[in-house]
Structure prediction request, 253 residues.
Amino acid sequence: MPTIDELSEPYANFLRPVLPDGPGVCSSCHTSVIGTFTMCIPCRSARSALPSVADSIGFVSLAVKQHQLAHELAFYKDERYAFEKRLRKIAGLTAILWRWLKVHEECLARSAGVPSFSVVTSIPSTRNREGHPLETMVSEKIGVTIDRYRSLLNPNPDYPDDREFSTERFRVPENIQAGTSVLVIDDTFTKGSRVQSASSALKSAGAATVGVMCIGRHFTATQEGDFGVAAKSYLKRSSELTWNWDRCCYCEN
Ligand SMILES: [Zn+2]
Ligand SMILES: [Zn+2]
Prediction:
């Protein structure tokens, strides 16, 4: 059996660091921002639309549009392809998430203001009929999450499949014990409507702290005007950094 490090290592060729908080970087979702803004437009929208949001959001890597990681994150759950064909991608993504959580879950927890997360859950799919491979990864495969896994988020069947921030998007099937800190796992973060809506629902159900870890932080640098300039500059800074499994956007020093 190959180890987690062996399975994840080939990904080092195309993983791109998410930049830490600082000038040109959104303090919440770590995408590029223009001028002197400290928070991007979607993160500001989340705060006005929802009663509460995630305390901290972490990522393994940028998922640059049309690049390899973005492709893998779409393919691994694409039911148009046979499950057997997707198994290798699922195993690879499981390995990189496992390896990342082993080292950097602690950094995310610290950034969220807690020593650790007592419960782990994942964002369910609204479309997949066969169940979501992400849930299987987190609840049955990844050694550092399986013992803490609880299925706490149900998609609201009456909610439209849009990209809005809404407390109606998810239902939490049980009350969460006061003081609980929850780690929410998702595959791709675009503007955060799913994870922020889920975080809000979990806090309404009793969670005290919610941290979010996503494998890919969707990124595109093809926008017009100032947004494009800011995104290209961000991507250049990221590309100039050598990939390092031991460094996340919340690592200290
Ligand atoms: Zn943001
Ligand atoms: Zn770290």
Summary: Residues 104, 107, 248, 250-251 surround zinc ion (ligand 2) (CB under 6 Å).
